[in-house]
Structures are given as structure tokens and as C-alpha cells.
Amino acid sequence: MIRFGVLGPVVAEDEQGGAVALKGPMHRAVLARLLVARRRVVPLNDLVDDLWVSPPDGAVAAVRTFVAALRKAVEPGRAARAPASLLVTQGAGYALRCEPDQVDAWRFEQAVTDAAAAEPPAALARLDQALAWWRGPAYADFPDAAWPRADRSRLAELRLQAVERRAEARLDLGRAAEAVPDLDEHVTAHPWREPGWRLLALALYRSGRQGDALAVLRRARDLLAEHLGVEPGPALRALETDILRQEPRLDAAGEVLMRAASAYDRVLPGGARVRLESAVGLLRNLAVTGPGGLEAAREQRAAAVAAAEQLGDPALTARVIGAYDVPAIWPRADDPDQAAGIVAAAARALPAAGHDPARARLLATIAIESRGTREAWPVACAEQAETIARDLDDPGLLAFALNGVFMQSFTATGGSARRDRIGAELVNLGARHDLPNMEVLGHLIRMQSGCAVAAFDRADDHARAADDLAGRHERPLVAVFTQWYRALRADVAEQCPVPRAETLYRDAAARLDQAGMPGMRDGLLPLARLGLHLRRGLPPVADDAGYGPYAPWVLALLEPGRTALADLPDPPADPLAEALWCLLGQAAVAAQDPIATVRAIRALTPAKGEWAGAASGALTLGPVAEHLAALNAVP
Known about the structure:
The protein is mostly helical. It folds into four domains: 169 residues, Arc Repressor Mutant, subunit A, CATH 1.10.10.10; 96 residues, Tetratricopeptide repeat domain (Serine Threonine Protein Phosphatase 5, Tetratricopeptide repeat), CATH 1.25.40.10; 237 residues, Serine Threonine Protein Phosphatase 5, Tetratricopeptide repeat (Alpha Horseshoe), CATH 1.25.40; 115 residues, no CATH class. Helices cover 63% and strands 3% of the residues. The chain contains 29 helices and five strands. A three-stranded antiparallel β-sheet has the order 3-5-4. The chain has a two-stranded antiparallel ribbon with strand order 1-2. The longest helix is centred in the first third of the chain and has 24 residues. The N and C termini lie far apart (93 Å). The relative contact order is 0.05. About 1% of the residues have low confidence.
């Protein structure tokens, strides 16, 4: 099938994409004139008048010669004297009976029409394809001829609309930055198109460039006033006002959410129970969007649970608690009192959990929120939740339960191999069942377990995978963990200079300061710097930030005699337990305290193949085996 192109110089291609020889410019002019007619018959006299301003003698014969040559070129397989099927003679004229998909301009029109009714992903793909068909101005061979003028203008306008519709699709898909270069080129070439200016300003605003967005709108105002003597239209004026006010509706997702909330209030003015369950769904998503979202979700979650209990409906309370399946990786609560309240509410709701999924979610919640303890009950809850989820063959439920199992895996030292298996299963579940949050969690767990045994190449792979997923699914908090990991890697695996390592740890801490995770933040940077100095054989440095919850074990080493080693409690059940045991062990060696020495040896022996504290993916005090060797040398 021959294909014709008019979106640029007029061309024809055979079925293999090879160029069809069209001979001279008059042959292409006849072809183009017939294509402009869109399958209609063009009288021979009209062809003559259109091809020449002053037709020469023999013009009619010349046109017939051109048509015969074209017919031979575009119907190469036609037998001699067989009737033509493509370039046909009808009465005293000719017509090109093309199918819609044979002409690029016709395909382009259909693509733009299809895109107008398509969802943004399909619209973007269709418009990208359609705009790629343009090779220059339509009918570029005949810039001064009158007969293609109307079609050229119509196609040019349609192309401009397609460029703007493609930009809208990118904005709808949250890809505002991608839309900016094309729109900038668009308004430069077509400065009187107000829709282009509006889209460019909106794309800049959604890319975090509010100042540039306002500058674009002012440039549009100046151009319109200077050259046309008019003010911008209502759409541009309204956008400028909205940007100055930072209206939430300028954010595509925010606009959708506002409309949905409005519709919800209109359709369901009452219904407190349904509202509570819906609110938890929003909070679950809010918690992974960034530091402000995490803090707000944490606060409102407690309020939702309290409201459910006030309604006196234990089954509702169970659903509200269990629906908040936000992944958790740091086994120290950001708000211990709130966590304890959630655990207590879950325990009260357990008797009303009449079916297994609800019960499993409550059990998993208890396991996750009972962070840093060595109590038997949360461990049993995690195991029960996992058993129920496996029996039900529910991937989402199993992933939530495995999160609880992971959080309760720090009750003894060591255990990185077990946690790596948990992480691997979470990655598999997440990838197979479209659970991106749990897939990210699995990669972070495997990153940490790789650190625990100094397998940095393996940890690198999982850090990259976590960052890639976080980028695709807008999970900015993931970078908190991967940045700490890369600081630790540079310190340990690359042995970077101490000042460089200090800078990397401080940069990671600065990000953590804004993350809304005090359970991880407090004392972490000072402890990381202490580990750096002790491993490099340098004297410890004072840290104005303080060691936070790790102070008792740090000060036992740095201030001998301040606290009797026998009075030091066991460290919390978290990824830094081995590091704190090593600090106690060093203090025991320095004090030649045999009881504290034996205590540290017993605690650290299960972790003898790991690096102290590296299971956190954030810091380390070095190989546990070296600390054990020093402890075992105490008389």
C-alpha cells in the first residue's frame, strides 16, 4: 500500500518504506492538489488553473501526461490497460481514492481526535506519535500556491492544538518539568497563543518554579499589550492570581482530591463510620508523601482510632486500626506514647475481630507498634499474623504481617540473614502484586542486612532499587535511609578521609532533621561520629547535639565510673543494639569488669559474623568479632 506525506514536502512511500519516484515538481503539484481534494474529483480545467497562473498552450495535455506518470508510480503492479483503483479518472477530472491511513495528514487528524477523548497516558502516547509525523510546514513545496492555503492553515492550527494537548497530558500525569521545553519553544514561535502561555506558566509552577511562572505571565502580558494593544484574557489573569495565592487547585492531584472530597460530602453528608474508614485510607497515603505528611498522618491516625472507640463499635475500631498498613523500618517509635495507645486500642479490639483478615491486621499492628521491646507477646502477635496471612493466601495481608515479623526480629542480636529473607519475600510480593510501598520496604531491609555483613555491593543494588521505586511512586522519605547508607558505605567500604565522612554523616542528618522521624533522628549523628572516631583510632569528640536515647551506653565508656556497669539495662531491641553492647563491652574491658564482660560476650556472640550497628544502614562500631576478641582477652 502506497503512503503519502504532506506534513512537510510532498512524498510517497511504498510498502517497504522506500521512496516512490515522483519525477519533477509539477508531478508533485498534481499529487498534492489531488490530496487536498480528499478523494473528491478535481476537474481537469481546475488542475490547469491551479498549476499555472497563465496556462501555456498544451497545458491540458501536460496534465494528462503528469497524471499518467503518477499513476504508473503509485500503482506499479497494475496490469496494462487494467482500470486504475487509486488514481482514477472520472468524467473530465481525476481523483485519488486514498484510504484514511494512507495520508499522514489524515492520520494526524484522526490521532488528535482520538487523543481528545483518551485518558492522559493514551493521549500522550498518541500525540507523541502524531507530532513525530511532521517534517515541516504542510505542503512545504508550494508555499505561494493558493490551493493548499486553507488546508495548510487548518493543519497548522491542529498541530498547535496537539502541542498544547500533549502538554496538558504531561501535566495531568505529573510530568510538568517534561512539558516546559516544548512549551517554551511553542510560545516563542507563536506568542499570541494564550493557551500556550497558560500551560507554560502552570508547568513551571508545578515544577517548583513559582518565580519563573510569574515571569512568563508578565512576559505574555507585555507582548500582548505592546504588539496587539490588548490585556491578557480571563484564563491568564486568573492563573496569575492563583499562583500569587498558591491556590491548592493548581496542583493536579490536589484539584482531584478537592473535587473528590466535595463530592463525598455531597453524596454522603452523614455516615461517620464510613468517613472514618475512608479517612484512614487517605492517612495511609499521606504518611508516605513526605515529612509533613508523616507527622500529620501520625497525629490524625490517633484521632481516628479514638473517634472509632468513642462510637462504641469494636469491629469498626479494628478496621480503622488495621487499615493503616504503612510500612515501618525503624524499630524505635517516633511517638512512644501514641504507639502505646495504638497497641492498647488494638488489644481492646482483638476480641471483636470476628474474621481472620481483621484479626491478622490487628496482630500485625501490635507487632509493628511494639517497637524496641523484648516482650514475648508482640513476637507471638507477629507470628500469628503471618500464619493467618499465609493460610488466607492474601499477598497484601502477608506483606503487612511480614513487616510485623521484621520489627520483632531484633529481640536478639544478630539475625541479619533472617531479615534478608524477610526483605526478599517483601520485594517479591511487592513486585508481583503491585504493592510498591512494601517492595520499597523489602529493598531497604535487604540494604540494611547487606550492611550488617559488609556486603556493600549487594546493598548498593537494593539502595538503587529503592530509590528508583521511590522516584516512580513519589516516596521522598526513602532517600532518608539511602543517604545514610551511602554515608556509611563511603566511611567503611571506601575508607574516605575522616572530614569527608563527617560531612556525609552531617548531610544525612540534615535530611533526617526534616523527615518527621524523631525516633530515628535523636542521637543518631553523634553516635555515627563516635563510631567513626573509635574505628579510626581517634579520640572521641564532644557532640553538642547529645546522644539522646543512647547516652547511658555511650557515657559508660566516655565517662568511666559515672554509672555502674551492672546498673546499665540491656539496649533496646533495635538495629543499634549490637553497637550499644559493644560500647558496654569496651567499658567493661577498660574497667576490667568480669561480670560486665561475660554479659557483653553472651549478648554479642550470636552476632559475631556481623558489624556492630550496621544493621541500621546508618553507622557501625566495626566488626563484632573484634570486640569479642577484646572481651575474651579480659582475665
